[in-house]
From TrEMBL, chain A:
Protein name as it appears in the record: ABC transporter permease
Recorded GO MF terms: ABC-type transporter activity
Pfam family name, one: ABC2_membrane_2
Source organism per UniProt: Streptomyces lavendofoliae
Keyword Membrane: yes
Superkingdom field: Bacteria
Keywords linked to the UniProt accession: Membrane, Transmembrane, Transmembrane helix
Automatic annotation (TrEMBL), chain B:
SUPFAM superfamilies: P-loop containing nucleoside triphosphate hydrolases
InterPro entries: AAA+_ATPase, ABC_transporter-like_ATP-bd, ABC_transporter-like_CS, P-loop_NTPase
Family membership noted in the UniProt record: Belongs to the ABC transporter superfamily.
Name of protein: Multidrug ABC transporter ATP-binding protein
Listed Gene3D superfamilies: P-loop containing nucleotide triphosphate hydrolases
Ranges for domain ABC transporter: 17-242
Keyword entries, A-Z: ATP-binding, Nucleotide-binding, Transport
Gene Ontology terms, MF aspect: ATP binding; ATP hydrolysis activity
SMART domains assigned: AAA
UniProt cross-references to PANTHER family, sorted A to Z: ABC TRANSPORTER, ATP-BINDING PROTEIN
Length: 281, 317
């Protein structure tokens, strides 16, 4: 039987060459068309800024109660840099970005959208790669904005007591960059966990365990424990924002900490891209 | 309205779906077993079977979403999974709920169109075609099932594909919607496309399909035209109304017929209406009513799949 098919929508029978860029554009449409994306990023931005600015404001408020020696030593001890991005806000941002990254893929699995997606683009790896690119790019922009805004705002508050520093201060740029990049690394880790587990609640529990619990469990007490701890993202961030590293039994370099960032990001990206390949959807 | 353009260049696509000895097992459960059939262009092919017969599993394997345990399935001679993009070859609606409720219809379709390099104007076109242009910017979460079905049909039409798959597309549609979908399917088939529509209700297919593929418990029961299928019906039963029901009953039973009596009424199988009339005449039995009733397609379907219905209501377990 040779029924011929005539295309009617004017698209023509010749299929254009598949381009990766189109998948990235499609994933961007999906991400930006969800109101929850903007709410999640907005709420995280406010929380991080509030934690940092609050700490700086506290310093500002209690400044008159400090001794003259304490005040003189304040900048030299690197405390303004610690306040530029506090450990609390780093933890909040890590958890929030892990959840946002996970939801980028869980949202598709839990609603069944993934089937619509893969029926439209059977090349699953390319879809997942495009999604990873979009999630990483958006989180990088977010991290940069929130880190720079935090730095500017906290130092402006501290300037009121002549205790603020500028971006050219030694180590300042590293603090901003380490904090900014923490956002995309956590987002892609969250996405990887979501891609592998595919269920909302289990993914969230796993993300909290990886992001929050592991770095607390592994302490500096023994060598193996210290090494395991250094391999966690939170401790890597702590190392990168430390202006004057305390002498510990197991010191490590900032190069090592950057490597930890890179290994987490790459491993997570590989997991996210390959996880859907062999499974029934 | 999209119309057939006379003299438009025809593609090289041979939009045939070929399913060959397809088997799918999930753990110890066999969902589809040794299924072989072909779906051809230019016709509406109905895919029938009771709930749990393996229709959705088969459709998912055609789309490469589920990997067959053994056997092959191809569209236009190739496994769908091996293609980089799908919408210009196969448009599908598997489950109207497979969308994110937080998005608008236009965002959902725009993302799909973009991923397959389909121009944005097609999004507006298909939304108009399915009658969702007015609500295109509203969140899908607020849509009724019928509206979601229309949106799913819009996604299937987006790439103007030669092959269309629909899993239970009539669920949730109002009568006007059902008629619209039937007309749409007919037009799509008339345009030379392959239209494959699943349903668990024979009555839905009776007025829609040209060809039928019937499965039960994952196995092929029939693959033939609607006409051939209806000829399978158990035959005819004759309804008779007579004041002398008992007398006629005895005569007919002696003639080898099976008779059910209810008051004045007899339901007779195994003897034609003509013969019943003659017998009544010979024995001077007055008849108030005599008519032949053909078994409906629904009955043919029920009978064929009776052995393979998985969830039977009122069946003591």
């Amino acid at each position: 039987m040779t029924t011929t098919y005539a295309p009617v929508g004017g698209l023509g029978a010749d299929e254009p060459r598949a381009r990766f860029y189109d998948l990235v554009a499609a994933e961007w449409i999906k991400l930006r068309s969800l109101r929850s994306t903007w709410i999640a990023y907005g709420a995280t931005f406010l929380a991080v800024i509030a934690f940092n600015a609050g700490t700086a404001y506290d310093t500002y408020n209690y400044w008159p109660e400090r001794s003259a020696a304490d005040r003189a030593d304040y900048v030299r001890a690197g405390i303004p840099l610690q306040e530029a991005f506090t450990a609390n806000s780093a933890m909040v941002m890590m958890l929030a970005l892990g959840a946002i990254g996970a939801l980028a893929i869980i949202g598709e699995y839990s609603t069944g959208t993934i089937r619509t997606t893969f029926a439209a683009v059977p090349d699953r790896r390319s879809v997942m790669a495009a999604k990873t690119v979009v999630v990483t790019a958006v989180a990088t922009v977010f991290g940069s904005i929130v880190a720079v805004a935090s730095f500017g705002l906290t130092q402006a508050i501290l300037d009121g007591r002549d205790a603020g520093i500028s971006m050219s201060y030694p180590g300042a740029l590293r603090v901003v960059m380490a904090s900014a990049l923490l956002a995309p690394v956590c987002a892609v880790v969250g996405m990887a966990i979501g891609s592998v587990i595919r269920h909302t609640s289990a993914t969230m529990i796993a993300a909290v365990a990886v992001i929050l619990v592991l770095p607390i469990v592994f302490t500096e007490g023994r060598h193996w424990s210290a090494v395991a701890g250094h391999a966690t993202l939170y401790q890597a961030w702590l190392r990168l924002v430390e202006v004057d590293p305390r002498q510990t039994d197991f010191p490590w370099t900032t190069g090592g900490a950057w490597t930890v960032y890179a290994v987490w990001a790459l491993t997570a990206a590989v997991l996210a891209v390959t996880s859907a390949q062999r499974r029934d959807q | 309205m999209v119309r057939l353009r006379a003299g438009s260049p025809t593609g090289t696509v041979v939009p045939v779906i070929e399913v060959n000895e397809l088997t799918k097992r999930y753990g110890g459960t066999t969902a589809v077993k040794d299924l072989t059939f072909t779906v051809r262009p230019g016709l509406i092919t109905g895919f029938l079977g009771p709930n749990g017969a393996g229709k959705s599993t088969t459709l998912r394997m055609i789309l490469g979403l589920h990997e067959p345990t053994s056997g092959t399935v191809t569209v236009d001679g190739r496994s769908f999974r091996d293609r980089p993009r799908g919408l210009r070859l196969v448009g599908s609606l598997l489950d109207a709920h497979d969308v994110h409720g937080g998005r608008s219809a236009v965002a959902q379709l725009s993302a799909l169109a973009r991923s397959n390099r389909i121009p944005q104007r097609r999004v507006e076109e298909v939304l108009r075609e399915v009658g969702l242009a007015e609500v295109a910017r509203r969140r899908i979460g607020g849509f009724s099932l019928g509206m979601k079905q229309r949106l799913g049909i819009a996604s299937a039409l987006l790439g103007d594909p030669p092959v269309l798959l629909f899993d239970e597309p009539l669920n949730g549609l109002d009568p006007e919607g059902v008629k619209w979908v039937r007309d749409l399917f007919r037009r799509l088939a008339a345009e030379g496309r392959t239209v494959f529509v699943s349903s668990h209700l024979m009555s839905e297919m009776e007025h829609t399909a040209d060809q039928l593929i019937v499965i039960g418990r994952g196995e092929l029961i029939a693959a033939e035209s609607l006409t051939e299928f209806s000829a399978r019906g158990t035959g005819q039963s004759v309804t008779v109304c007579t004041p002398a029901a008992a007398a006629l009953r005895n005569l007919l039973t002696a003639e080898g017929a099976a008779v059910d009596t209810a008051g004045d009424l007899l339901a007779v199988t195994g003897v034609t209406a003509v013969r019943i009339g003659e017998i009544a005449m010979e024995h001077r039995i007055p008849l108030h009513h005599l008519s032949t009733r053909s078994a409906s397609l629904e009955e043919a379907f029920m009978e064929l799949t009776a052995d393979s219905v998985q969830y039977l209501a009122g069946d003591p377990q």
